[in-house]
């Protein structure tokens, strides 16, 4: 339409100039018109010159207009064409739902945001320790800590805004221990009137592609039955932050109230997903709590998405000490049953050295587990953690059927 409009304008101007040229009686003006119309060139040459000049001017003008429109979104380290191609690729990406909490989930989101814009993070709201626990007790809001981590990981400006969101005040101030992001979300709860709206507005501030959703809007408490070596009976521990501190063997975890209602958008997202990923993260305090919400588990079973559980790379003291791959899978199945997940993704790089007290989550050679896929997922400078790009690539390769076992 732009080209057609410019052509019609050009034809109109040409008719006027032609009429002016033919009817002009000024002898002094005729030499000027002859030069302006390039009459000293043959007609075919004049046509080519005017067409080429017009094409170059239109191209340059359109390019400058586009630059002006997209200038606020440009990154200095990336060319405009590369950014447009990258944006289009991510816009056409798969719909991925990630469940969990803590730093493991943020690590995965950093990798997946380079693959697709259709990302949804479903976060547990059972956290009761640190800054989140204090805000939960003082203000009566859902714990914002894990949600803050996910928003920061999904941000397109992690270099500045996300760092500000993650900034933690020192103990010498009256806000000691609180992070700026937690206080920001808490303030938005008062401004918007709801926790879920506050999270959505926070995502807008951080320029997030994707959504971060709480698993439930109910105030739930995580409860664990812990077995100590010197005791016959199990001890019931209340509170997500207290469970790892007891240094016993976790036998089972529960939510109180026992059947919290899922946040409705979570159910819709799960049912429409192409890929659902649970993990990595703390097995009993970050991953399983999401699946203890009955509606979420039912939606996962009904969803046609590929469902993958990411097994941790290293053990966690107080939760999974001494666990291997089989123990992780067994603990998960003890809580939600078998057949929920299509694939278990595990690490197979055990070369780097781990800190004292931390062990690899490995699979014994004489153990055969179905639907287990192994890949190098280790972060070289912190081998007890997942590498975000390696993990995201492995997941997308399995989804695209480029690798992995036949499902």
Index terms:
407 residues, single chain, elongated, seven-stranded parallel beta sheet, 2 domains, three-stranded antiparallel beta sheet, alpha/beta, Rossmann fold, 12 strands
Give an overview of the whole structure.
This protein is an alpha/beta fold and 407 residues long. The longest helix has 28 residues, at 43-70. It has a seven-stranded parallel sheet, with helices on both faces. The chain has helices spanning 2-23, 29-36, 43-70, 80-91, 102-112, 130-139, 145-154, 161-166, 180-192, 195-205, 264-271, 283-291, 294-302, 325-336, 388-399, and strands at residues 96-100, 119-123, 211-214, 221-227, 235-238, 249-256, 275-278, 306-310, 343-347, 372-375, 378-379, 382-386. Helix 5 packs parallel to helix 7 (145-154), helix 9 (180-192) packs across helix 10 and helix 11 runs parallel beside helix 13 (294-302). It folds into two domains: 2-71, no CATH class; 87-124 and 215-399, 3-Layer(aba) Sandwich (Rossmann fold). The chain has 15 helices and twelve strands. Helices cover 44% and strands 14% of the residues.
Contiguous runs where pLDDT drops below 50 for at least 5 residues: none
Which structural class fits the helix and strand makeup?
alpha/beta
> What is the arithmetic mean of pLDDT?
87
Q: Could you state the CATH homologous superfamily of the largest domain?
A: CofD-like domains
**DSSP strand tally:** 12
* Discrete helix count: 15
CATH architecture type of the largest domain: 3-Layer(aba) Sandwich
The coarse silhouette is elongated
**Percent range for helical residues?**
40-55%
Strand content: 5-15%
Largest sheet descriptor: 7 strands, parallel
The span between the termini is 49 Å
Looking across the biggest beta sheet, what order are the strands in?
Answer: 3-2-1-7-8-9-10
Total separate domains: 2
């Amino acid at each position: 339409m732009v080209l057609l409009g410019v052509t019609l304008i050009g034809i109109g101007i040409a008719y006027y100039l032609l009429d002016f040229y033919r009817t002009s009686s000024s002898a002094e003006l005729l030499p000027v018109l002859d030069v302006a119309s390039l009459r000293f060139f043959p007609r075919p040459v004049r046509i080519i010159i005017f067409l080429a000049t017009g094409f170059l001017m239109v191209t340059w003008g359109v390019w400058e207009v586009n630059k002006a429109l997209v200038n606020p979104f440009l990154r200095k380290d990336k060319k405009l064409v590369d950014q447009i191609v990258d944006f289009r690729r991510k816009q056409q990406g798969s719909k991925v739902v990630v469940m969990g909490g803590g730093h493991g989930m943020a690590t995965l989101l950093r990798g997946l945001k380079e693959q697709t814009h259709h990302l949804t993070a479903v976060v547990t709201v059972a956290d009761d320790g640190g800054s989140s626990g204090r805000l939960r007790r003082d203000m009566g809001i859902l714990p914002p800590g894990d949600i803050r981590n996910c928003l920061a990981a999904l941000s397109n400006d992690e270099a500045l805004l996300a760092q500000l969101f993650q900034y933690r005040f020192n103990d010498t101030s009256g806000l000691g221990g609180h992070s700026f992001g937690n206080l920001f979300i808490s303030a938005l709860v008062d401004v918007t009137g709801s926790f879920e709206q506050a999270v959505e507005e926070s995502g807008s501030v951080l320029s997030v592609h994707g959504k971060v959703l709480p698993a439930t809007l109910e105030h739930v408490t995580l409860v664990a039955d812990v077995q100590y070596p010197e005791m016959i009976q199990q001890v019931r521990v209340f509170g997500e932050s207290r469970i790892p501190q007891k240094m016993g063997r976790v036998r089972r975890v529960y939510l109180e109230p026992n059947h919290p209602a899922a946040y409705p958008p979570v159910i819709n997202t799960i049912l429409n997903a192409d890929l659902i990923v649970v993990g990595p993260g703390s097995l009993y305090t970050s991953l399983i709590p999401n699946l203890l919400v009955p509606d979420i588990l039912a939606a996962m079973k009904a969803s046609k998405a590929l469902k993958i559980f990411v097994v941790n790379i290293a053990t966690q003291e107080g939760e999974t000490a001494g666990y291997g791959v089989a123990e992780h899978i067994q603990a998960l199945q003890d809580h939600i049953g078998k057949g929920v997940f299509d694939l278990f993704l595990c690490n197979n790089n055990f070369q780097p050295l781990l800190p004292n007290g931390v062990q690899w989550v490995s699979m014994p050679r004489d153990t055969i587990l179905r639907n287990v896929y192994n890949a190098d997922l280790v972060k070289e400078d912190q081998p007890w953690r997942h590498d975000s790009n390696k993990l995201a690539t492995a997941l997308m390769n399995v989804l695209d059927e480029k690798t992995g076992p036949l499902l």
